[in-house]
């Protein structure tokens, strides 16, 4: 019985609540009882005690007991709206979305509540839908809230998050603009990212002109890294090789850490005519040649640039070049990353340089430390092995950090 009750507590609570609400509904209709003033005062005292107890349970993490206390309060005073809100919130945080929804719906449907309370209930209902993954309904309900009062930062922010998640870039853009107005904070970087994501969809469809127009809009807001990478892709798709080279050079000068990623994103497939694709591939091959020939000292001091070069050499089966580059680099840099050392060891094995392998493995083992994933979010710590411009966990833009991974 104990265990059963534990497992089904919220179901029992909901049932009891329904019975109580039903009872109150009929009692009110039937007799229209009015409570005496003295009775009201005692209710108020009892209710304060209930809230105190429930709050303490919540602080102690005892959700079940808190729900029980709140139910007591419902029993005492049917007009206590805060109780319903608190109960709805508890059901929602307990994952019982349908029960939270029915509580908030019943609040909205009430006749004798203020418009402010109705709006609060509507907002809670939107959050229920949102948390329950019913995104269409969440969007609709959040928008209903905004129809009443547009100046609500958290509601606009929620719509931004949803539209970005479902990659509706037009609406994501609209609500970011609204957010910058409501929140009085600059959203230019994020809007640039959103416009780049939209422009990318045109690139993938081979609609380069439309892509370029969208990208210009993105640059107007902020020159984000993603905007620059897409600009480079456009240069490969429809510009000259000289243009592509100088775009790449500028890009690396400012963001050398993205070197490897730049090249892997240039390989992404897109729809275009055979002729267009061929031209793109030819320019890309020339761009790689240009990159491998870069001798700029500042750029070569960056381990990310060296790693990108080594990977391109290896992909072109130029192990000897990769070996010479790394040998020289490791000779000048006292504390190279594990990933560079590991690449070096792999190349040594490929080239049959056994003696050097043994020395390098010893060095590597001395320095080796474990890492979980290739990338992580500087804002919330989210780990991933793929690039994310918008963190899937905390929804911040461009918080990605690189971890050197073997
Ligand atoms: Zn994050």
Highlighted features:
406 residues, mainly alpha, Serine Threonine Protein Phosphatase 5, Tetratricopeptide repeat, three-stranded antiparallel sheet, binds zinc ion
CATH architect. name of the domain at 2-146:
Alpha Horseshoe
CATH superfamily of the domain at 2-146: Tetratricopeptide repeat domain
Label the structural class. Answer: mainly alpha
* Radius of gyration of CA atoms, rounded to a whole number: 30 Å
Total E-strand runs: 3
Coarse shape = elongated
Strand order of the largest sheet: 2-1-3
How much of the sequence is in beta strands? under 5%
Number of helices: 21
The CATH class of the domain at 2-146, by name, is Mainly Alpha
Ligands: zinc ion
Instruction: Return residue spans where pLDDT drops below 50 for at least 5 consecutive residues.
Output: 16-36
How does the major sheet shape up? 3 strands, antiparallel
Share of residues in helices:
over 70%
- Gap between N and C termini, in Å? 53 Å
Order of helices and strands: HHHHHHHHHHHHHHHHHHHHHEEE
Describe the structure.
The structure is a single chain. The protein is mostly helical and 406 residues long. Among the domains are: 145 residues, Tetratricopeptide repeat domain (Serine Threonine Protein Phosphatase 5, Tetratricopeptide repeat, Alpha Horseshoe); 95 residues, no CATH class. 73% of the residues lie in helices and 2% in strands. The protein contains 21 helices and 3 strands. The chain has a 3-stranded antiparallel sheet with strand order 2-1-3, with no helix packed on it. The radius of gyration is 30 Å and the shape is elongated.
């Amino acid at each position: 019985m104990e265990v059963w009750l534990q497992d089904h507590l919220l179901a029992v609570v909901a049932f009891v609540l329904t019975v109580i609400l039903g009872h109150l509904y009929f009692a009110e209709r039937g007799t229209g009882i009015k409570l005496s003033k003295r009775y009201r005062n005692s209710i108020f005292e009892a209710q304060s005690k209930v809230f105190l107890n429930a709050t303490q349970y919540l602080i102690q993490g005892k959700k079940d007991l808190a729900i029980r206390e709140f139910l007591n309060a419902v029993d005492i005073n049917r007009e206590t709206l805060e109780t319903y809100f608190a109960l709805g919130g508890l059901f929602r945080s307990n994952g019982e979305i349908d029960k939270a929804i029915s509580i908030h719906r019943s609040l909205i449907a009430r006749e004798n509540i203020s418009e402010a309370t109705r709006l609060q209930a509507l907002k809670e209902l939107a959050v229920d839908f949102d948390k329950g993954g019913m995104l269409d309904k969440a969007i609709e309900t959040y928008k209903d809230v905004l129809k009443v009062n547009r100046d609500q930062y958290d509601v606009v922010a929620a719509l931004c998050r949803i539209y970005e998640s479902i990659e509706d870039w037009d609406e994501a853009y609209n609500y970011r603009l609204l957010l910058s107005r409501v929140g009085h904070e600059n959203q230019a970087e994020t809007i640039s990212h959103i416009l780049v994501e939209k422009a990318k969809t045109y690139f993938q469809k081979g609609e380069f002109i439309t892509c370029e127009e969208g990208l210009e809009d993105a640059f107007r807001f902020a020159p984000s890294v993603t905007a620059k990478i897409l600009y480079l892709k456009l240069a490969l798709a429809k510009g000259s090789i000289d243009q592509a080279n100088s775009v790449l050079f500028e890009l690396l000068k400012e963001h050398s850490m993205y070197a490897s990623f730049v090249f892997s994103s240039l390989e992404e497939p897109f729809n275009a005519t055979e002729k267009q694709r061929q031209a793109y591939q030819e320019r890309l091959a020339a761009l790689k040649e240009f990159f491998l020939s870069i001798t700029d000292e500042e750029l070569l001091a960056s381990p990310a640039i060296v790693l990108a070069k080594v990977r391109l050499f290896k992909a072109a089966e130029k192990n000897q070049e990769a070996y010479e580059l790394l040998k020289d680099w490791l000779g000048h840099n006292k504390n190279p990353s594990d990933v560079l050392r590991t690449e070096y060891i792999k190349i040594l094995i490929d080239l049959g340089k056994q003696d050097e392998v043994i020395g390098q493995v010893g060095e590597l083992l001395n320095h080796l430390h474990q890492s979980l994933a290739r990338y992580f979010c500087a804002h919330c710590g989210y780990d991933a092995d793929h690039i994310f411009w918008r963190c899937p966990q905390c929804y911040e833009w461009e918080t990605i950090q690189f971890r050197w991974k073997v």
